[in-house]
Fold NAD-dependent epimerase/dehydratase domain-containing protein.
Amino acid sequence: MAVTAALGVVVVTGISRYLGAHVAARLAADDRVGRVVGLDPNEPTAEIQRLLGGVEQVRADAASVPTVVAELDAEVVVHLSLVTSPEPGGRAAMKEHNVIGTMQLLAACQQASHLRKLVMRSSTAAYGASFRDPAVFTEDTEPRQVPRGGFARDILDVEGYLRGFRRRRPEVSATVLRFAPFIGSTADTTLTRYFAQPLVPTVLGRDPRLQFLHVDDALEALHRSVVEDHPGTYNVAGAGVLALSQAIRRAGRLAVPVFEPGLSAAATLAGGLRLGRYGLDQLDLFVHGRVVDTTRLVEEYGFEPRTTAAAFDDFIRRHADRSLVTADQLATAERAILDGIRRVRATAAKESS
């Protein structure tokens, strides 16, 4: 483990969001960091604002980031402002923010003469999720096919641009952290909302293996990436896996099996069950699952995130009082679902004969 010398100006993007705000606040409280400046085009909520007492805030959109980074004479840039799912502006706005915004930031970093380090949030979604996947992905594994989801494709583009930056500025220590899906008592994501509902849709005949990362361990990995030197690309996830069926039972929820085309028709399903809206990234994960190897992270950082099961249990503790399904109700509902499946099969067999 190589410890970075005292840092001057650290710029953190995306401080109006949970991850960016907490990383900026942790760095501002670290004596090894001289000055923390947060960039975001949006005004943080009152709750987020309370975290940012020691952080200088600059309202800056993607177009003005190059000027701001140059004027600040930044030594470290921490890029956390990626959007993981379409917002009101739709898919086009999401790609503009993720891909074009990152291009503009990297262009600014390329011209920043005092830049020593770049840390970027990425995702294990970069590997995609398909029936062709290996049992475990390492950092050197290439996706077997182009992911269907917009966020995963954005990640591939963003990491491609970063590889170009590394070639142009080899003296800058560049760290990429591919995070598994976040979970935990404080996480609020599409995934946590999926498991927090009493009825959880699953694909009939599929039981994917899932891996999670406690959001506090993501913060720790990001913090260490700034104050220590860890150039390279790292998978960041909790050890071990949970099958989707195990996770649903652990949370005390009711699985609602549907055929895969039904799950893909997310708008209809979400409207009927009030489960929220899921993109193709999440849907493919619920069908195929994804597991990554974290050996490189553990050996390089000397840090091991809590296990997938422990991270999920922390999430359950917060949502335990929201479970609307008792064990007896769960068993009764499962029997009813299985009876329904048998009737569908019997009807189909009768019609074919």
